[in-house]
Amino acid sequence: MSFDPSEKVLLQAPPLSCDAHFHVFGTAEKYPYGTDLRYAPPHAPLEEYLKLAKHLGITRYVFVQPSAYGRDNSCMLDAMQKVGIAHCRGIVDINENTADKILYDMNEVGVRGVRINVSPVFPVTPGLADQLKIRIHTLAKRCAEIGWHLDFLLPGWLTAELMPVLEELELPFTMAHLGMNLAKDGVNAVGFQSLLKLLQHPNRFAYAKFTGIYRMSKTPGFIDADPLAKAIIAAAPDRIIWGSDYPHLSFGDKSSVELFNLLARWTDQASTQKQILEENPARLFGF
User: Fold this and answer.
1) Full-prediction pTM beyond 0.90?
2) CATH topology (fold) of 18-285
3) Residues 18-72: tens digit of each pLDDT
4) Is 215 helix (H, G, I), strand (E, B) or coil?
5) CA distance readout (Å), 119 to 26, 51, 155, 202, 261
6) Domain locations in the chain as residue ranges
């Protein structure tokens, strides 16, 4: 996967800007894929991503374990060691009973969170929320002990069913892709209003990820997502982080540069851009 270096970056990134959500993929020979593939895994090595990051002005990176590798985090952890803990952090996918030593070894490399990952297009399934509660509560306890957070990628219907659980969490957590609230439903949709309420909760644990806008928007230039993004900025600018979602997986034709430039359209306030790109991820990931 590559990008077009001629694409113009419209937003001047603060010096310590962070891409808080992207993936790397190695060769299938070295890093075998899992059995539950949601997409055709691309070859997206670290070197290609770093070219993109340099083009955007990004100097801090948060690797996120892609579903294609299941709970084998080897590819991501190897890439993190190449970059070094001064510049990167990571979000892994692990079993609830993973040994403490493995967690602490990951922590030394820069891991700071665990994914709760369900396909964004997973159909409504009665009982799934109840099944996930055990995993959420178990991992929440273990993450709190080591100073990590939880990272949720869920379909919108599942986010809604788990909202009471999310409201009671006692550690930081992130909601990828704006909680999968669809742009066509607008800012007054029940799910989106619940997300705003969650971000404004007095405990200040919840963060929204400006990631995967193409998953919620179906209009040219993602114009229909503007009201949602601007509403989140107005409600909780200190609880937003941005991620390229590179290499975009099922949406491989999308441009990371275009997605980065959306921030300039959603807010022209340099102080708010700095919060989203630098200050908020520094707080959450411990840079």
Assistant:
1) yes
2) TIM Barrel (3.20.20)
3) 999 999 999 888 988 877 777 777 788 999 999 999 999 999 999 999 988 999 9
4) helix
5) 22, 29, 7, 29, 26
6) 18-285
